[in-house]
Task: structure prediction
Amino acid sequence: MSLPPAGHVLGLADPERENALLTGIIDAISAGPELGPLADGVARLIVAATATDVCFVHVLDDGGAALTLTGATPPFQAQVGRVRLPVGEGVTGWVASHRRPAVIAEHKEADPRYRYFPELGGQDYTSMASVPMESRPTGLVGVLNVHTRQRRDFTDRDVRLLTSIGSLVAGAVHQARLHRRLAASQQAAARFAEQVIAAQEAERRRLAGDIHDGITQRLVSLTYHLDAAADAIAGQGGVAAAELARARELTNLTLDEAHAAIAGLRPPVLDDLGLADGLASLARSIAQVRVSVAGAECRLPDHVEIALYRIAQEALQNVVKHARASKAEVELRCEADRVLLRVTDDGQGFDTGARPDEGASYGLRSMAERAELVGGRLAVTSRPGLGTTVTATVPVASG
Result:
């Protein structure tokens, strides 16, 4: 918003002008939660409205031991983030430690509180006013300074106006800090999810390797011995031949199960095909139930794709083992801010108010944990005789 032309003193005697300034500050505060743009916008408004030459916004760090320059008017924007003042040092540090305004009309160098910072061009400015940025609910969050090249006698009203601005800004700085901490917490949670899923996949690869290099190879060796024994007694018939044939049959079945376990533990389809085609490949591997897949490919973070693939894998295993279904459907739908995976079957269903059998219950817990790990949620709807629907919904960043 536009402000009336500035006069030669800070607050003037014009309530309309002061109200316009405070309204402008509120508009700047409402523009967004980012601390840097907020501090810069406030500094520019103060200089434009108060006929001062430069404004600095120093924000107290989370530990409360130092202040960092977070907003500045020209020509000092390049110093934002670089100038750091210990609490108690310099005029700004004194204001922070005492939580009282400080005004110096001239001869700053003679004030025992003053410290020269070449980065802030103190030698070019004669007068300054410094006020704490604090409010009752937030406490001290920083210090607000204005400087003038010409000598300026800052009045009590000037200081009260700056203090009012500081109080308004304090609440916004506090909210910006909370927003930053929340964003950092969310990023940490996302990194943790990635690390957990990566660890799970690494363990699955290790197990798949152990099965392939150990159990599978021994089973293959066993088939050779069984075949050799069968050849040795060929034509003799009897119980021994029948038992060898049965042993060979069981060995082949165990090999098939080992290969299936390896494929389940380490599916390469996500790297080779992507999630949608990977789900289609998974559906083709389910021989006991007819599975159809609907959905277009969309790029998601690797750990989200892995989690959704594993949820679909577990859901289809539940269908095969527990649902007594003839068909199932897998739907993948990517929206602007979320991705939805739905697995539906026409099986026997169950009463969601009752406890399912142990195997199905473990599968449901596993799917729910995977969804929660990537910030999503799992919903299960089912009725006896009417099948079951498992829906995983995971938020994704837009753009």
Summary: Confidence is low (pLDDT under 50) at residues 1-9. The radius of gyration is 35 Å.
